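for the writeup, i need someone to sanity check this before i put it in the appendix. the sequnce is what the collaborator sent (i think, or maybe the updated version? ugh). structure was predicted straight from it, no edits. if anything looks off just tell me and ill rerun, i have time this weekend
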Amino acid sequence: MASIFYDQDADAALVSQRRVAVIGYGSQGHAHALNLRESGVDVMVGLRETSRRRTEAEGEGLAVGAVPEVSAWADAVMVLVPDQYAADLYHAEIAPHLQDGDALMFAHGFNIHFGEITPAPGLDVLMVAPKGPGHLVRRTYIEGSGVPCLLAVHQDATGLARDLGLSYAWGIGGTRAGVLETTFEEETETDLFGEQVILCGGLSSLIKAAYETLVEAGYQPESAYFETLHELKLIVDLLYEGGLSWMRYSISDTAEWGDYSTGPRIVTDETRQVMKDVLDDIRSGRFARRWMAEARSGSHNLLEMRARDRSHEVEQVGARLRELMPFLTPRTPG
């Protein structure tokens, strides 16, 4: 069984005695910085001089500085910038200012696991990874609860890395919900696999293919949207609350029979083999190398695919229908 830790297992004093630099102020960065501050931790946010996030962080009353300045001030640095930018930023603006005994932290293992970042041996290197988006990390903290976190230690120079990680998780509210101990390897590989096979890649491709099948068969685009995208939230909420069995208990017998009898026709042995191939791409590092090459060459393919999918008919129909739903807050990608 996995080891899971809660508030009573964390020594709050460990993070409270640190000067913590939060590098980045996006979804995770803003949540970590604000939660830590409200837990009594001394925090500074590290941003580039030209970052549009600077005004947001300063507006919350947070101390903000350039990345080198903040890294030199801190004795614990949490790197919360996108994977593709972290290594270059680390080598140029963070690493030169770290000292033996400092802690280097991440919320995803990508750069450490795939060798983009190789920290000096005198550093503690650990991961505290909330299993939810930053806005949920912030909201649940304010409500008095938290988001479960993963904890992993890559390098324990001081002998306190694991304890500091638990303390940091306490500071952002993670120990309220539970902290699962793992490894950088396991977190990175399972996270990438989940994103690609089901949570993002598999789900979005399934939605588009199902939508196109209905529309091509002559059904109204609006009906197709409701059946293939809109109702997903209802099912996912049931899964979140009680797993597959609760979802199946909550739906009709007809829907449950269709689940058992038709699901295996969609996810076939061929599909399972593709999943294994995807996992092999991840574990071997091939995916990481392809992604970093794409990012460093300007992300032209990513931008092209993003534009293409934003113009897909299911997105256009959905935007029109959501305008008729006053209970939804409009969401437009930046």
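The beta strands are 4-5, 19-23, 42-46, 63-65, 76-79, 103-106, 124-130, 149-155, 179-181. The mean pLDDT is 96.
thx in advance!!
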